Structure formats: C-alpha cells, structure tokens
Amino acid sequence: MILEFVSNVIIIDDKENEIKDLVSVLDDQDISSMVFTPAELKNEKFKKNRQLFFLDLSLDDSKKIVENIALIRKLLKDTLDANFGNYGIILWSKHQHHIDTLKEKLQEDRKKNAYPTPIFIVGLDKTKYIQQGNYKGLFQDIESSLTNNKAATFFLEWSNSVKQAENITVSKIYSLMSDYKTLSDDFIFVLKKLALHYTGIEESQVGTYPLHIDAFKSFDDILHAELINCQKSGTNLFPSPLSSLKNFSNTSDLPKIYSQLNSALLIDENNIDQSIVVPGNVYEIKGNSSKFKSDKSSQNAKNIVIEITPPCDFSNSGKRIRARLIGGFLVDADTTNTKKQIQDLKCSKECFYSEVFPIMIQGNTNPQLLILDFRYFGDEDDTNLHNVLKYQILFRAKPKLFADILQKFSSHAARLGLSVIHS
Questions:
Q1: Is there a single domain that holds both residue 397 and residue 256?
Q2: Which end of the chain has fewer CB atoms < 10 Å from its terminal CB, N or C?
Q3: pLDDT value, residue 318
Q4: 25 in any annotated domain
Q5: Which domain holds residue 220?
Q6: DSSP string for 185-219
Q7: DSSP secondary structure code for residue 4 in this structure
Q8: In what helix (H) or strand (E) does residue 385 lie, and over which residues does it extend?
C-alpha cells in the first residue's frame, strides 16, 4: 500500500551517518529522495509534491522538544507551497506523547490554513534500525502503524486505485489509435465525439460553448468505470457491527460537512457560463417581479429558476425553441430539523421538489435548502437568461440531480385523475 503511494521523499536530519542506510533502502525501492539538514532546508521551497517526509523530532539536540516542534512547524510553513499536495510524515521518536503534542500543534496550523498539513503522522523508533544495522522492515512497520489510522489507510488505497485507473484509461484510449502519425488528430476527433455526446449538444450549436470542459467530464466518466474495477478489493474500514462505530467528535460541525459533500456530489459551480443556456443551469432571479417566483418563497430567500429542457430536445435544435424553466428558491436550512422546516413551508406536497438539503452555495456562509415549485413552470427567451440584470447564473445541476428533478417533475406533470362511479 505505502510503496505504491510513494515515489519521492524528503529526509530532514542533521546526522548523515544515521540515514545513509535509509537512502539505500529507498533507492532499492526506486523511490527518489532528497536529504537536508534543518539549516540547508531554510533556503528551499517545494512546489511539487513529495509523498513522505522523514524527520527527527529532535532536529536540534541543543533545544527542548517543544522548541524542536516549533522548528518543524516553521520549516513546513516556509518550505511548502500552497499547492504542494498530500503527504505523510514519518517521525523518528520513542515517545508517543511527544508525537501527540506535534499533532496538536499541527492541528492549530491546519485550522489557520497556514500551510498544507500532513494527512498522517507515523512515529517510529530510529534506534531500532540503527541497532540492527539497516532499515529492513521499514515499510512493513509504517503499514503496521497505519492500520490504526483508517482514514489514512482509505486515502492511500483510494489514491493508489486512482493512479492505476488513470494509467489503464489512458492506455486503453490511446491503444485505439492505430498510427502514431495520426494519433493526435484521431484522438481529438474521438474526444470531440465524447464531448458532444456528454450533454447532447449539436456541433452546429457549439459556438462559444466550452466543449473542452465536457471533454474532460466525459473522460472522467471513463476513468470512473475503470476506478470501480480497481476498487474491488481493499481494507474493510468499518467495524462489525456497524453500530459500534464511534460517534462524530463534534456533531455541531456535521451540517456544514454534509452540505459541502452534497454540493460536491450534486452541483457544479465552476464550469458555468452565463452566455450559454444548458439544461441543469440554475439562475438567481433578479428583480422583484417574476412569473417564476413561488408564493412559498420568503423575504430572506433567494428566488431561482432551473432550466429543465430534456437532453434529447436540447440535442435537437428543431425541438427546442425557448428555455423551459421551473421556479423555486434557496433559503438558509434549519439544520436542527430541516424536515419540519419543509413542512412549515408547506413544501412537502408532490408539487414541490425538496430533496436537496443541506447544500452549500458559493456566496452563502450557511447551509441552504433548495426548493423547486413545479407549479411555476414556463418558458423564457435565451436572451433574457443571458441578461445578468434579469438572471444571474449560480451553478449547474450535475447529471444525477438533474435526472432526478426531471423525473419527479415529469411524474408530477403526468398525473392523471379518473372519475369513476363505484357504487
């Protein structure tokens, strides 16, 4: 597990004779290493990721442990670029309470976003390897220590499977191109097809539409299929029975955590364009008057519309004349009892879509509740949706959310009543 994850390491130590065998072990595993004394490290700035740091808790024997911990924090802050990436620390120390102290101090830095902090810290006794005359068994010891850190174990296994899926995906796609001479052009042609079919947009409609973004998304879908195959086995992180799992340490943090996760799963706030009207786009209604403003909306709510043209119509320009919109609103979620909040808004009936809560929207500090009111359905000119004085694009519903909204709206719109005399 750890060997698949690591390709580059940094060793910080002021005793060269104690780490030369470590460098040799890393070389044997084809792992690149850079060795620094604390003094040498002061002039370095690492912009690219190294997956492991080996460092001594006592970098300066003339200083107390608390002073050495302060030195470690300063070295990390001064040397790590903001985009350095994920890494772990192997800390040479005999004393667990010293390691716990370092973790507490790094947690303070983590809250301040002072620099990229490690995803795990493993404490090992360097004396063991010095006395045995080599670093044999080092990686087994690291993995053994990580078994108690299930979060780190999951990340390492997931990260390794992503890398494996990436290699498989690229190899498979490139192997479809038969000739190196035409490989680039052929690949871009196939990529164009994948991108066009991602949303169903016709080639003649592309214009300024960011088709390259859909190319990335379509490739992500292929990667995801391979990723599932790479994750068929792995460590079972959950206890049995599942009810024995420890409760979350600070339950008051959960609403914001859940809202951030829901946003990551359901909405796209980055790849959006006001000038392009695409199914799933969600807009804020500007101005007080709108035929899409729900009567259940409150003064503090943000009134919205979502474009719900079926993808098959969107991909056929002859079937789409105007945008099809459903009105709704975003309101701060009562995270203590959101379901009661929905009932109080009288939005629990079949004419409302109230599945999405809590969710975090850019520009809002509080988790949100998204309500769609199927009664407020109509059409709109694209030119109005382009106009930021009338509508402001907020985000785009990802395929799973869009499909669920479209299915539930279709079910609502297709309700049939039948007057039957039974007796």
A1: yes
A2: C
A3: 63
A4: yes
A5: 157-234
A6: HHHHHHHHHHHHHHHT--GGG-TTS-HHHHHHHHH
A7: H
A8: helix 382-386
Does the pTM surpass 0.90? The reply is no
The reply to whether 404 and 257 lie within a common domain is yes
* 203 and 329 inside one domain: no
Question: Cα 200–201–202 angle (5° rounding)?
Answer: 115
Give CA separation, 334 vs 40, 299, 301, in Å: 53, 16, 13
Contacts of 233 (CB under 8 A, 6+ apart): none
Give 52's contacts (C-beta < 8 A, 6+ positions apart): 6, 9, 10, 87, 88, 89, 90
CATH code of residue 283: 2.30.30.110
- Name which of 317, 323, 318 is nearest 278 in CA terms: 323
> Are 139 and 9 members of one domain?
yes
Q: How many domains does the chain have?
A: 3
Place of tokens 């695409």: 278
322 close to 309: Cβ distance less than 8 angstroms? no
Please, is 340 exposed, middle or buried when counting C-beta atoms within 10 Å of its C-beta (0-12, 13-18, 19+)?
exposed
Res. 232: pLDDT tops 70: no
Strand 32-36 and strand 8-12: the pairing is parallel
